[in-house]
What does this fold into?
Amino acid sequence: MRKTLKEIAELLKGEVVGDGSILITGASGIKEAVAGDITFLANSRYDSLLNTTAASAIITSQEIRESSKPIIRTENPSLAFAKVISLIAPDSVKHFKGVHPSVILGKNVKLGKDIALGPYVIIEDDVTLGDNVIIYPGCFIGRGSSLGDETLVYPNVSIREHAIIGKRVIIHSGTVIGSDGFGFVTVEGIHHKIPQVGIVEIGDDVEIGANVAIDRARFGKTIIGSGTKIDNLVQIAHNVVIGKNCLIVAQVGIAGSATLGNNVTIAGQAGLIGHVTIGDGAIVAAGAGVGKSVPANTMVSGWPARPFNTMQKVNACAQNLPKLFDLVKELKKRIEKLEAR
It folds into this structure.
């Protein structure tokens, strides 16, 4: 698509600084951009590229006042650029249509309008699929489950029995929803399985990455709130409750019966023990080990997880340990000499 910078600014409700008549034919990252492209600057670490990028124009924040290149000043450069990408390079993925003859349907399955089911999809008894649901090849939908309108399930996903999936949910390949929770009672060295008879309930507009495991509840529900986004390779154990609009980043592990409020961020490779509560708006930094509840609107890091400012001081002190060690050795020698006198 070919549009002038002024036309793009009007769509973004942004302010043009510079020549608004230049023609934009593409969009790219600030390092990779070429003439004709529009790019964006949202992170101050790339400020030095503002005047060196080959892009013809740049989407910036309101803080940027001038540049050697024409700019569009916006409230949120990342979101604005995402809109431009959709405009200039619309999604090239074309989903298939119709129901493949190899699909296996159980009894009392209810199919909405314009359903698309790929080869070798298995749908058990009493499943309900809303309108415009797309299920790619090799997926399994367990009995009594329901998927809301416009939900998209990529290949080789398993959704176990009685799961409730909301509207406009995206589930990427290899994910398992509703697997048994990890529950055992050990008696005389023998591990006896505890039946897991609950379900998983997922709200609207949730996106779940590849190879995620969300366990069914022991009793009741494991819950993922509406608007939450889950990255690849995340483990969510039985009876976990995750609130709305949370971000769960790759390789996070959340143990059973933990509760996350709304707008919580759990960064990569963090681990949470069971039965803790993470308050609304809290942030758990990458690699943190959370062993106790975290208040709302706070940030924790480290192992065990502590307030972020505290861990910064601890880490700063740790950097001085070699010097402290040498100092202690020197002081020890001096004391020995004094005692020898």
The two ends are 89 Å apart (CA to CA). The mean pLDDT is 93. The chain has three domains: 3-88, 98-310, 311-340. The first strand starts at residue 3 and ends at 4.
